[in-house]
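FAQ: What does the model actually see?

It sees only this:
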Amino acid sequence: MSPRALPRMLWVALAALASVLSLHSGMLAALPSGLRIALAFGVLVLLPGEGWRRAIGAPLPGGAWFAAGPALALGVAWAALAVLATHLVGVPFTVLVDHGALWTLVPWMVASRTAPRTIEPFPALPRLAIAAVVAAMGLAALHAFQLGTPVSYFTDSPDHIATVRRMLASGQAFPVDAFFRDPYATFADPRKGLWHPVVA
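And it is asked to produce this:
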């Protein structure tokens, strides 16, 4: 790792720590809920994922345009691992909310010691390919914005919302008592995995 990269990593880690503490303490309660959710997603998922990417020296496929992809994948994996660890030791996974600042810092602390000095980059994508992918992403975002969240009796959204609500109420990552009567009332619903507690 270059000498200049270490201070940058420390600044990123400190900014993430300050953001997590501000969200947890309610200092940012005046902000719109959508903005707070986006900030929480960034500091609890994307930033730790980027820290692990740097720690293992993984190159960016497609360049900086698509940096969020590897960060999202590694960030979700890290959060899921933390949830699974709480389940194995028998404590509510909601403790991660109280101590979120600590597990958010871990990837950057590791990266400050293990990140390679240079990372062999992927071959650059042609500009036309990048433009096509960005256009597809824009159309998908526009479609999602126009459609909105499909919450109705004709979708499975109530099931997922109820599951997340029950997880938060009980502190159990794999609740065995759902709000809706179903054939999985006596054991964990196999349709749900680690993604739901990460969302919760």
